[in-house]
Amino acid sequence: MKQYGCWEWGDKAPPKGWFLSRPGAARKQGLDPKKYGAEDFPEAEEDLFAGSPGISLPAMPSAPPLPIGLLFPGQGSQYVKMMMSVKDIPAVKDMLAKAEGILGFDVLKLCLEGPESKLEETEVCQPVMFIAGLAGIEKLRLEREEAVTRCQVLAGLSLGEYTALCAAGVFSFEDGLRLVRKRAEAMQAAAQSPKQAMLSVAGLDKPKLVELCQQAATSEGSGAICQIANELFPKGFSCAGTEPAVLALKELADNAGALQAKVLKTSGGFHTSLMAPAQEQLGKLLDEVLPNMKTPRCAVYMNATAAPIKP
């Protein structure tokens, strides 16, 4: 006989949601009782000791984290009409109003109307993706609040790491947006010369891809750069470098049987030595914001180390 916490169900499982529909059960789990069709009785525990002087209840422990991780996208995931479904959420409206004052342009108008070529510009795209990621959090908060308030881990790809840190409370929306704007401007400047590109490659082993990157760079002569920029998943990578070398890599990867070799919608050879000038500028900016940073409310996995920073 299985034990479900109530004798009345015998050897049968109770109906889905039964446990949380009991009076007070949802609240004890940190959830909204109304979502589970239950009445809430916040006075129940206090009444238990009514008339018993000298007895005090300890504070309710904070609800434990749920097995939920939130992952935020980076540059290259943008598209015209993005944020259409979240534009009327009050918290998003507030962010958009603040963003216009910081960035100097209408973020929502650009997202909804484009043009796509403008949305792809690094100095525009990165702040917009930062805002869009946080807007997604607000949409999720309305649909399933505990997935936001009780998530266990956060992470983000490249620019998305800043979104994750902001969502974890490490820095404010305003500080985060200013950081991202400066990061984007520095990376845009570093990407101006020589012409650069990125390539998503899937289906090849890392040693083989490293070999192909070297071949591509060699084929384009002195000054050419082509290297793995991101390790995304087993046999899944982003490569970056000077544009002719990256295009040469695409052809080599296709011929080697890659499942995918797709040029990304970015304007720079990000996460390579081509970004060294931007790295120096961003380091100084981070040092300025550092005194205002706080401990994250949950674990945030970092791109460079694949290790978490914890509360």
Structure summary:
The chain has helices at 18-21, 25-28, 44-48, 90-103, 107-113, 116-119, 122-143, 145-149, 160-167, 173-190, 206-219, 243-255, 276-289; strands at 69-72, 153-156, 196-202, 226-233, 236-242, 260-263, 299-301, 308-309.
Instruction: Please name the CATH architecture of the largest domain.
Output: 3-Layer(aba) Sandwich
What is the structural class?
alpha/beta
- The geometry reads as globular
CATH H-level homologous superfamily name of the largest domain: Malonyl-Coenzyme A Acyl Carrier Protein, domain 2
Query: Can you count the beta strands?
Result: 8
- Alpha-carbon distance between the two ends: 41 Å
Domain Malonyl-CoA:ACP transacylase (MAT): 71-311
Protein name: Malonyl-CoA:ACP transacylase (MAT) domain-containing protein
Pfam families: Acyl_transf_1
GO molecular function, one term: transferase activity
Which helices and strands appear, and what pairs or packs with what?
Elements (H helix, E strand, L loop, with lengths): L17 H4 L3 H4 L15 H5 L20 E4 L17 H14 L3 H7 L2 H4 L2 H22 L1 H5 L3 E4 L3 H8 L5 H18 L5 E7 L3 H14 L6 E8 L2 E7 H13 L4 E4 L12 H14 L9 E3 L6 E2 L2
Parallel strand pairs: 1-2, 2-7
Antiparallel strand pairs: 3-5, 3-6, 4-5, 7-8
Give a verbal description of the structure.
The chain is α/β, with parallel strands linked by helices and 311 residues long. It has three domains: 7-48, no CATH class; 69-190 and 275-309, Malonyl-Coenzyme A Acyl Carrier Protein, domain 2 (3-Layer(aba) Sandwich), CATH 3.40.366; 196-269, Malonyl-CoA ACP transacylase, ACP-binding (Alpha-Beta Plaits), CATH 3.30.70.250. Helices cover 42% and strands 13% of the residues. The chain has 13 helices and eight strands. The protein has helices spanning 18-21, 25-28, 44-48, 90-103, 107-113, 116-119, 122-143, 145-149, 160-167, 173-190, 206-219, 243-255, 276-289; strands spanning 69-72, 153-156, 196-202, 226-233, 236-242, 260-263, 299-301, 308-309. The strands form two sheets. The protein has a four-stranded mixed sheet with strand order 1-2-7-8, covered by helices on one side. A four-stranded antiparallel sheet has the order 4-5-3-6, with helices on one face. Strand 4 (226-233) and strand 5 form a beta hairpin. Helix 4 packs antiparallel against helix 7 (122-143), helix 4 (90-103) packs across helix 10 (173-190) and helix 11 (206-219) packs across helix 12. One of its GO terms (molecular function) is transferase activity. It comes from Strombidinopsis acuminata. This is Malonyl-CoA:ACP transacylase (MAT) domain-containing protein. Residues 71-311 form the Malonyl-CoA:ACP transacylase (MAT) domain. InterPro entries: Ac_transferase_dom_sf, Acyl_transferase_dom, Acyl_Trfase/lysoPLipase, Malonyl_transacylase_ACP-bd, Mitochondrial_malonyltrans.
